[in-house]
Amino acid sequence: MTSKDDASLNRKEQILDAAAALFAENGYYKTTTAKVAEAVGVTQPYVFHFFKTKEALYLAVLERAYQRILYAFTSVQAPPELLQETMGKAFIELLADHRNEILLIMMAYTTPEPVIRDHTRRQFEMIYERVLNRFTQAGIADSEQKTSNFISFGLLIAMSETLDLPYLCRWREKDSDSHQNHENHDNHDSR
Predict the structure, then answer these.
(1) Residues 84, 146 contacting (CB under 8 angstroms)
(2) pTM of the full predicted structure?
(3) Which of 105, 118, 113, 108 has its CA nearest to residue 53?
(4) 187: pLDDT confidence band, cut at 50, 70 and 90?
(5) Sorting pLDDT into bands at 50, 70 and 90, what band is 7?
(6) How far apart are CA 130 and CA 69, in angstroms?
(7) Residues with Cβ within 8 Å of residue 133, at least 6 apart in sequence
(8) Contact 23, 1 (CB under 8 A)
(9) With 0-12 CB in 10 A as exposed, 13-18 as middle and 19+ as buried, what is 131?
(10) Is the distance from CB of 48 to CB of 33 less than 8 angstroms?
(11) Mind listing the pLDDT tens digit for each residue in 105-140?
């Protein structure tokens, strides 16, 4: 690959990053390819060089997030009794590292465009199958119900994060309590 190819791929990633941020902040309809181009510092035709339409750009952002989720859920290594918790932590890490993308994929079903809805439905089917397969292979009892609950909790986390309603998901409190206890322990040790 030439340095020109590297620069082109890097610029494409910058476009995807900017698009994810703008779609997350403004929604599908209020985000324009002109705003994405402006955020990256390129022309709108340059954005169209990579993505022929705004819908194609949106789907590319969703696809990248979807691939991140699938990889995280596939690559998690944990004993069966800790698999659900470890996969949940992998999701939380994705949310911390790629917040805009992950929230977009978790909320994409709200965009009524048929192509986006169909794509989102297929993505969630694949995620469901991947999680179900992991739970089944681990010997987790009632794996179908546990898979549904796992995905439902992910959707609840996304809604809680999007609407800034932390009391809907107490997982933040656990992280905060754990962090606070660690700080208190460190402060006590330094006395």
Answers:
(1) yes
(2) 0.81
(3) 113
(4) very low
(5) low
(6) 10
(7) none
(8) no
(9) buried
(10) yes
(11) 888 989 999 999 999 999 999 999 999 999 999 999
Two structure tokens written together for 185: 């322990």
State the residue for tokens 């992280």.
Answer: 175
State yes or no: pLDDT of 60 exceeds 90.
Answer: yes
> Which ranges of the chain does DSSP label H, i.e. alpha helix?
3-30, 33-40, 44-50, 54-75, 80-97, 99-107, 114-137, 143-163, 171-189
Domains, the chain, ordered by start:
3-177 (1.10.357.10)
User: Tokens representing 169?
Assistant: 């998901």
Strand, helix or coil for residue 165:
coil
pLDDT at 31: 97
